[in-house]
Automatic annotation (TrEMBL):
InterPro entries: P-loop_NTPase, RecF/RecN/SMC_N, Smc1_ABC, SMC_hinge, SMC_hinge_sf. One of its GO terms (molecular function) is DNA binding. Its main location: nucleus. It comes from Metschnikowia pulcherrima. One of its GO terms (biological process) is cell division. This is SMC hinge domain-containing protein. The lineage of its organism: Eukaryota, Fungi, Dikarya, Ascomycota, Saccharomycotina.
Length: 838
């Protein structure tokens, strides 16, 4: 019993020892795993996290700096663009003023040239030079009221106007508007009625002043029944809220206009007699230089402005970092959790070892106690054995019975068991030794391979380092070369900008020189023409002196001996070879030329001629008088007939003009009223139930058929834009609206639409289909050519053309959709072939 207890305690003690050993081994394994794997990985990940945090902070700072720089550059660019826009607008204004100044200067030059070529007094002058305002506040209103007649040329009669037009055509000197005083037609205006409309309204004829009373018909023609009001509100009240029906054009003091048709236009800048356009060359050059400087500065700001792609790249990098940080943080949490779990396991194993040691101690104490008991029992047994087996031992020569047991009994069997256990342990040790030897061999072979690989990698590393050093040196050299090239490029760019600036200045100077040359050439031509006119007057005067036997003293020779009948063109030169002797004149006439003196002499000469005619009786005067009377009567009859023909032609012309205007305005008014509703119906939708808006305006109110018509279409939920800026679909809808509105004036029985849906999306195609379906009828049939099912599926009938390959001809298929439901129907081809057109 004690032996089995002892064996049980020994087995338990051995198990405890093995458990303690396993726990200690597991602790070492866990500590090694924590130290070698988890803590190393944790340190690596923490360092990586720290690097990422630092990189993120750096990238954020860099991104903020870039964003701030972009913002500052954008503000700077906006400011420069604003200044550049203002400078460009002022330059455009100055250029417009320069063009207007050039136009007016050319017009004045043409007037001066025409005055030299026609008789004196035939050309009165430019309208804005002949009239003025009664008060300065009416300047803008008068200019607007004059309109296109502001710079018209007032002439004496139609013959002078036609002659001036022929001269301008021959010389290609431009265009001009002429108002002949003898044939201009003026409308009858009831000035008293216009003056009684409102205290703040007056006829335009009341605010104009002119010195030459012969200009009255021209002024009446230019202004007509125009009314000048103080402001636009008064004009609106008179036009639409007054009890009187007023069809006159109304002009406000700021230049705003309400036309006779009701259209309104805004005010304009004041131009006082054409002299308010003060174009300054110095200001133009200064603004041009300022624009170039602003453009250069703007280009510099734009080139230095960080690219938005850099910000996007930084944002992408930050997004990647933000995605990487949680992933690494999750790894850190997992590793820390693994470490904590293993530390907890180590703590648990240590506590287990302590408990095992306590159990070992108690087990060992129990074993020692049993050993003491067994020893006591063994002593007792030994004593009993000596007593019992003393004879047996003496008989066989044994010291005691234990010697017999050791060699032949239980001890032999125990030794056998022990021997078997040792043999098994030796076999297991040999197997482990063989395994360890094989493992050592594998490790040594791996070491050899790694050593070889290491030597190869070291060689590759040396070569890579050498290559890196070479490339670094090359990069440094290239960077230095690039820096020098950049400096050269900047210097060349500065030189180029300077050359371009000088070139532009030279071009401007050359343009000015050309303009000055052109102006001088025109002045020279006018001077030559004036000299030719003076030559003709000189020759005529010499001829008259010779014909009338005037004794004109010459320095050499006599006037009667000189012939003026040569038509070779050298008469003017011959006239200049004739030198008049002015020695007989008084000194006051020899000293200088005065127009006043010339006028006095002309009056005296006329008086002397009249006295001579009275003193010299003519016997044939009565006959000549009769002939002259007859010719006068004939001329009077012809003139009367011509005036009657002219009046009849003018009356017919005015009738045709009024009829033409009435027909045109009838169609225009109908179309203008219709187009907005058509456009609204074509463009309305669920999101915009009111649809868009469209309207037509005339460019010329007086002769609408002779000018253009402006068409404006504004799609729904969009701001106003020019027609050229609309998309293809929007232009298509606007064009269809105009066509449908025109068709509504005098509708035709058929309306052919050939693939109008090519630029339209499905929504607009449905709108077109609905419009056609709603307006189609016996009196208005649509023939639509389309390839889109959403359009032709709503039709009343379908006609298709296809090619019959066997007969080389075309066939038609037709289907009346009104006779069928929405279910698919069989379509039969027609039997009659149609000749194919290739």
């Amino acid at each position: 019993m004690l032996s089995s207890d002892r064996d049980s305690l020994i087995s338990s003690l051995k198990n405890q020892f093995d458990q303690k050993k396993d726990a200690a081994s597991r602790i070492q394994e866990l500590e090694g795993e924590i130290r070698n794997n988890f803590e190393a990985d944790l340190g690596h990940i923490n360092s990586k996290l720290q690097v990422l945090e630092e990189t993120k902070a750096m990238k954020l700072q860099e991104k903020d700096a870039l964003a701030q720089k972009i913002k500052e550059s954008s503000f700077q660019e906006l400011g420069l663009n604003t200044k550049l826009g203002q400078v460009s607008a002022r330059l455009d204004e100055l250029s417009s003023q320069q063009n207007e100044s050039n136009k007016q200067r050319k017009l004045r030059d043409n007037v001066s040239m025409l005055r030299n070529l026609v008789k004196e007094g035939a050309i009165k002058g430019l309208m804005y030079e002949l009239v003025r305002c009664s008060q300065q506040k009416f300047d803008s209103a008068l200019q607007t009221a004059l309109g296109r007649n502001f710079d018209a040329i007032v002439v004496e009669n139609s013959a002078v106007a036609y002659k001036c037009i022929e001269i301008l055509k021959e010389r290609r000197a431009g265009t001009a508007t002429f108002i002949p005083l003898d044939s201009v037609v003026t409308e009858q205006v009831n000035l008293n009625y216009l003056r009684s409309l409102d205290e703040a309204a007056r006829p335009a004829l009341d605010i104009v002043r002119y010195d030459d009373q012969s200009l009255e018909r021209a002024v009446q023609f230019a202004l007509g029944g125009t009314i000048v009001v103080d402001d636009l509100n008064i004009a609106r009240d008179l036009k639409w809220n007054s009890s009187h029906q007023i069809d006159n054009k109304m002009v406000a003091l700021d230049g705003s206009v309400i036309h006779a048709s009701g259209l309104m236009s805004g005010g304009q800048q004041t131009q006082n007699s054409g002299n308010a356009l003060t174009w300054s060359k110095q200001e133009w050059l200064r603004l041009k230089r300022e624009r170039e400087e602003l453009s250069e500065e703007l280009s510099k700001v734009q080139s230095e402005k960080p690219n938005g792609i850099l910000v996007n790249d930084l944002a992408d990098e930050l997004r990647v970092i933000d995605e990487e940080i949680p992933r690494l943080s999750s790894k850190v949490a997992i590793l820390e959790r693994e470490i904590e779990e293993r530390k907890f396991e180590i703590s648990f194993l240590k506590e287990t070892i302590v408990e095992i040691e306590k159990k070992q101690t108690s087990t060992q104490d129990a074993l020692n106690e049993i050993d003491q008991q067994l020893l006591s029992l063994a002593n007792d047994i030994t004593k009993l054995q000596k007593t019992i087996y003393s004879e047996f031992c003496e008989k066989y020569g044994l010291e005691n019975i234990g010697q017999y047991e050791f060699f032949l009994g239980t001890a032999m069997r125990a030794r056998a068991r022990k021997r078997a256990e040792l043999q098994r342990a030796i076999s297991a040790s040999k197997s482990r030794l063989s395994f360890q030897i094989d493992s050592i061999a594998d490790i040594e072979s791996r070491i050899q391979r790694l050593t070889v690989s290491r030597s190869q990698f070291e060689g590759d590393l040396e070569r890579v380092n050498e290559t890196l050093l070479e490339q670094t040196l090359k990069l440094q050299a290239l960077e230095g070369e690039l820096h020098s090239l950049k400096e050269d490029c900047e210097s060349q760019q500065k030189s180029l900008l300077s050359l371009v600036k000088n070139s532009r200045e030279l071009e401007d100077l050359m343009k000015e020189q050309k303009q000055e040359i052109k102006s001088l050439t025109e002045e020279l031509t006018n001077a030559k023409e004036y000299l030719l006119k003076v030559d003709a007057e000189r020759i005529n005067m010499l001829k008259n002196c010779k014909i009338e036997s005037v004794d004109l003293p010459l320095e050499e020779g006599f006037l009667e001996s000189i012939s003026f009948d040569d038509e070779s063109g050298d008469v003017s030169e011959k006239a200049y070879l004739i030198h008049v002797d002015y020695g007989l004149l008084e000194m006051k006439y020899q000293e200088s030329f005065l127009p006043k003196v010339e006028a006095g002499l002309s009056v005296k000469l006329e008086n002397v001629q009249k006295e001579l005619e009275a003193l010299a009786p003519n016997s044939k005067a009565i006959e000549r008088l009769k002939e002259v009377d007859v010719r006068i009567k004939e001329f009077d009859r012809e003139f009367t007939k011509a005036r009657q023909d002219e009046k009849r032609s003018t009356t017919k012309f005015n009738e045709v003009k009024a009829l033409r205007t009435a027909c045109f305005m009838k169609a225009f008014t109908h179309i203008a009223d219709k187009i907005d509703s058509v456009y609204k119906e074509l463009t309305k939708s669920r999101t915009s139930p009111l649809g868009g808006s469209a309207y037509l305006t005339l460019e010329d109110e007086d002769e609408p058929y002779a000018a253009g018509i402006r068409y404006h279409a504004m799609p729904p939920m969009k701001r106003f834009r020019d027609m050229e800026l609309l998309s293809g679909g929007e232009k298509t809808m606007a064009a269809l609206s105009l066509l449908f509105a025109i068709h509504s004036f005098q509708p035709s029985p058929f309306f052919v639409l050939d693939e109008i849906d090519a630029a339209l999306d499905n929504l607009n195609v449905d709108k077109i289909a609905n419009y056609i379906k709603n307006h189609a009828g016996p009196g208005f049939q649509f023939i639509v050519i389309s390839l889109k099912s959403s359009l032709f599926e709503t039709s009343d009938a379908l006609i298709g053309i296809y090619r019959e390959q066997r007969e080389n001809s075309s066939r038609t298929i037709s289907l009346d959709l009104r006779s069928y439901s929405d279910e698919p129907q069989e379509i039969m081809p027609s039997e009659e072939p149609v000749s194919a057109s290739m």
